[in-house]
Structures are given as C-alpha cells and as structure tokens.
Predict the structure.
Amino acid sequence: MQRDRRAPDTAALRLRLLAGAAAVALAASAHAASAQTAPAAPVPAATGPDGLTADAIYIEADVAAREGDVITASGAGENRVLARFRGVTLRAGEVSYDLEQGVATANRRVEFTDPAGTVVFASHLELDSDLKAGVAVDFATRFSNGASLMAATAVRRSENVNELNYAIFTPCPICDAEGNPKEPSISIQAEKVVQNEELRAVLYRNALFRIGGVPVFYLPFFAHPDPTVERASGFLVPIPSYDEGRGLSLEVPYLHVVSPSEDWLISPQLNTDVAPLLNLQWRRRFSNGMVVARAGYTYEENFGDFDGPDADNLPDIPIDAEHRSYLLAHGRFDPDGPWRGGFTAERVSDKTLFDRYDIRDPYQDNGLYYGDRRRLISQAYAERQTDRSYVSIAAFDMQSLRIAEANVDAPGLNIFEADDSLPFVAPLIEARWEPAGPVLGGRLRLRGTAVALYRDAYVGAPVLRPEVVPTGSLLGLPGVDSRRVSGQAEWRRAMTSRAGIRWEPFVDLRADAYSVGDLPPVLGLDDEAITRGRATAGLDVSYPLIRRMSDSADLILEPMGQLSVSTDPDLDPRIPIEDSQTLELDESSLFRIDRFPGYDLLEGGLRLTAGMRATLRWDQGRQASLFVGRSLRDAEEPGFLVPVPDAPTRLYDPSGLASDTSDWVVQGSFSPSDRIRGWGHATIDSSGDIRRAEAAIDGRWGRRNLASVSYIIDRSNPVAGPLNRNYEFIQLSGQQFVYGNWGVTAAGIADLERDVITRSEVGLLFDDDCFRFEIGYRRDNTRVRPTGPSEGVYVRLNLATFGGTGY
C-alpha cells in the first residue's frame, strides 16, 4: 500500500507539536496591537493542570490540517484523534475545532471527558465555545457508582441542563464479566429524560420500568436524584412487615434535605390493626460536631397477651389508649484543642414499645458509656486528651427494658427490671497521666478516679455482700448510696536478655476511700467511711520460641508466667459491688494485676499465673493459635462468693477466682484460608466442667455463598430456678446461590436452655450486585414480646442508586 504523503513516519509527532504551537500563536495574535507599544517584559500565560493555556489546543492525530481558523484532524483506520483544550479531553475518529468561535465537532467513536472526570460516549458530538451547550447522537455516559444513562439523542441546553430523547437509565451493569453486553436487571425507559445538574435530579416523562427487560410498571412522570448525589429529598424504599399484634405494616420514609449539613427523615408506620406510629429523625452536622435525634409517637393501647391461654376464646384484657413515644438522641462535639464532649438522651414510654413496633436498632453505643443490650442511657460527658494525659467527666442515668421475671402464659404481664433499682451516677471522673521520659528506666502511669452513685430502691445481692443483706421483710428499705475516690500508681520496666527471655518487673500502689450511706438500718449500720490500700510487686516473664517448619511455615511457642505478691486486699463487706459484678476471664485479663473490672473488688496475696500460647503460621497469612493458662493463689478468697439468686443461703463463684486455683482459660483461633476463619474461648473449672464458652466459625465459597455459626453457653449458676441466668444459644445464618443470581437464605437462633427457637427465617433470594430482593417466612418467639410469638412473610429490597428497605 502506498504511504500517505501527508502522513510520513514522523508526521504524528510534528503535527501535534505544530498544531499546539499554531494555537498558542493564534491566541497571542489577538493581542498584537499591544505589541506595537514600547517593549515590555512578556508575561507568561497561566496554564492549567494539563500544561495548556486557556486559549490553547493540543492535538495528536495521524492527519491534521488548518484552513483559516479551523483545525481538522483524523485518525487512520481504528486510530483516533486526541484533543485537549480548556481542561477537557476529546477522542474521536474525526475532530474539527474553530479557534475563532471555540466550537468543536467530533465524529466516529467519540469519547469526551470533562474537567470533573465524567465521560460521555457518542457517534457524533458538538460543543459550543463555553462547553455549556452541545448535541450528541447515540449518547451514553457512565457514572462513578456504576449507573449508566443512554439515549438516541442528547442536547445540552445549558451548563446545568441535559435533555435526552428515547433514553434508558440503569443502575446495573450492562456488560458481563467477559465484557459482553447483557440485559440490565433493572432499567427505566422514557420518552424524554432531563438531567438538571443544578437541582441534581433526573426527571422522566412516560417512564416504563423494566425488570430483566420485562415491562412491569408505568408512570407518566418520575424523578430521582442524580446518581452523583449522596442524598436528596424524596421518598425512600418502603419497608413492609407483619406482626400478629400490629397486623400488616408499611413504613414509608421520606427524606427532606434542608442543607448539605442538615436533614429530616419522616417515616410513618401504617398498621392495619393498630394506630400508626410516626417516626422522625433529625440530623445536623456542625463544623466541629454533630447531633442526631430519633423520636416516635403514637396514641394506642398497649396491645399484647395479658390474660394467658384463652380457653374460653375471650379477648385479651384491654389496656386504655394513651400517648406513647420514644426519644433516642446523641451528639458529639470536637472543637480545636484537647477538649471534646457529647451527650446521649434515650427514653421510651413503654418497656416493650421497641418490640411491638419493630423499631430498628434502638440500642446503640453513641456516648462515652453505653447501656448494654436492652438498657437505655442518658449522659453528658467531656474529655481532655493529650499525648501524656487523659481526663473524662461524666454523669448518666439508665432506663432498663430487661425482663426480671418472664410470664410464660401471658407475655404482656412480664415483670421488668425496675428503673429505680439502677443507680444515678454523677459525677464519674477518670484521669491518667504519664511522664514524658522513663522513671528508673521504666514506664510510670498514674491513675485517679472518683464516682458518686445514688439509688432510690433497695437492691440486695450481688450489690450488697451477704454479710450486710438483712433477713426478713425488705419493704421500705432505702437504696444504698456510695461515693468513692481512688488513686493508683503503676511502674513497669521491660528487659530482654541475650537469650531472648523477656523480663518485666512491676510495682503497683493503690488507695481507695469510700463513703457509703443508707445501709440497711436493721443491721445497726449508719453512714460509713471506709479506706483501704494495697501494694503489689511482681514479675512477668515470657520466652517466645520460633521454629521454621518449612520455607512457608513456622511454629511459635510462647510460655509466659507472672509471679506477684500483694498486701491484704481488705474486702470490707460494707462496700457495695457496683462496677465489678461481671468478669470475663480470658487471655488478656488473666495476667492483669486487677482482673475484676472496676474498682470495688480487688485481689491480693501471693499469686502465680502461667500460660502457653502456640501459633502455627503458613502460606502467607494462614494461621492457627491456641492458648491455655491458669492462676494459683496462696489462699482462697471467700469475698468473691455471692448468693445464688434462687437459693440466697447458698454461695457460688461466678468469677472462677474465689478458689486457690482459678478456672482454666482456653482460647484459640484459626484461619486455614482467606475463606474460613473461626475462634473459641472457654473457662473450665477444676472439676473439668465448662463454666462459660463461646465459639464461632465463618465460611465463604463461590463468589457470594457464605455461612456463619456461633455457640455460647454459661453454666456458672449451680441452682435452677426462675432467677437463674444460665443460658445456651446457637445461632446460624447463611446464603446459597442455586442457579445464577437465584438462591436461598436462612437464619435462626435456638435457645437450648429453654428448648425453643427464638428467631428463625428462611427465604428466596435474588441478587446480581445491583438489585437484591428477598421474600420469605419469619418467626419471632422471644420472651420479651408482649404479643407472644409473631410469624409471617417478610420482604427486603435493596436497589443500587435508589437505596433499600432501611435507613
């Protein structure tokens, strides 16, 4: 084939340089008149990120030519022209650019990228001088979130408005994994589509909704936010549900965006059998903080099962309608400097309101302290943190939604934990400080705390020791109040010998001062002032050993031990046990000086703690580990024993530390591949019985198949009865795709202690990474529901771009 004389081997390089130089020269000629004046130092024109001035054009092409003010360029065969001007990039088989008018025209496989990075594809494209208006044929664009918009013709009416004719929008992929075209799962076809970038909305005329290419719904007018919008005012996906007490329910959330930093969510729940519940959420972000408030209100009866089995088919006992509501609010503020603060405000009018109306996620950790599952907390706090110090000041009050005694026959008559049995805490102060440099070659830490707790109602064990729990009638006894101030100094120094043994001597000094009031008067006790102190010295030793098993595997053995000696802990029975009632003995807490949380309980005497950790690692990240450890004391500590709830005259050891030998701690984890992982933890008493245990394993196979199973057991209470808190649960969940994007999903929680399945669901699933739909059957048999077991069909829907059944 004869070579094109206009395009020799070096033509592309020379043409792109000459075209750029010609454009710059033309731009400079516009200021020729000023060049006739007295000579002056030239001022270089400002350049953009691409190195071009505002009036310059860069062209790279196989063939380029210029006639007057019009530059034309084309690519040979499959090659395309590359043109850059005014911050945009244009690729096409043919390009022409009018330097005088600033109008660009492109044909054949056009690809246009604006300064914001949005890419437009077309077979023909025209742009005006301001890049604010244009025309495209066979238009298509793809947004950063994967959504696509296509049209037969597109006209850019202004800088902010695009008009498309015979258009299709889809948030789903339009190509498969091999790059071949495929029918999108969800699409909207319309006669006309207007994309208003100022309103950040997409408006449709005669919109036809398709699922898998099949028409399913028509609207003469439809609108949704631009796919680039993070949030915009409008209706969210409705949330259907069913409950035997409420009947069929439909929650219709509407989001109202006030500003980029503020919005409202109005979400009424409409029910067939009871009055609606109005849910509201307000969010506001400030320059140095944020506030979120959720609330709900209804005027309705407290529906549920209040009269047990209805052998005579009589209706339940009616409960008068009244105002019922909830508030869940929190805020955090972090101004410049070391101080920050926040608050939570959580209250509900009925202890079962969240359960009756299926309020989503009411128990959250949004503050400095949290109320645990089924306890709400209202608090105010402030913190100050620097590189070497920390101080926090807080006050809080709690509301309990826990069941104290379940009524099997009439769940509506469950007895709940009384709010006045929980303390009001104000203030609670914690402080820590470390000097900048080492002290005696080691690290020194100073801690201080102060707290005051006030109770309205009397609470016996385990808050009060058995020695101060009165016998006989407890009616009219006041709640015990207490105040405490504690100070602690800890010094540690880590050293490693030439053989690799790690030695860490430590010294710990602690002093507590208590003021306890309103102790039971029948015991002849009044307001008591109590002081105590403890000194501890000890040594931590560990000796990690590693053996290379192969080029890709190694085994690490780490024996560790601790020897400590302390003065008498002085467990005065008049001190209430407020912050040390629960203990999770595990690998991390076994070697602590104070293994009980909080300050009310502390250990002393001579202690020897030993353990061994073995870790096997292989094939870049795969590993398995096991830890076994135990602690021994020179004498038993009966102060750790508490009365059995169902047999107050008997004592038991829920902590596993009251004997001269602690429980065995066994803990392990494994991840033989990046698709399987598991872990487990157990405490085993001296007789070999499991006191507490917990284990879980997660697995994935294929691209989206997964399953998870977990097991937890507590056998610390030796006496069965209505107040026995022992439990045993197993939880399962998983999804398996059977054919293409179709699969099944299942989940369940079984209460093995009561031999009942508390929650279960099984459903049919469709998921193609753009559109997830679930429909199935669900049953809720938790004891807290006043309506008793609830069962029915559930529907979950999540759509890319449009959101899902939740917020």
In short: The mean pLDDT is 85. The longest strand covers residues 502-517. The longest helix spans residues 11-29.
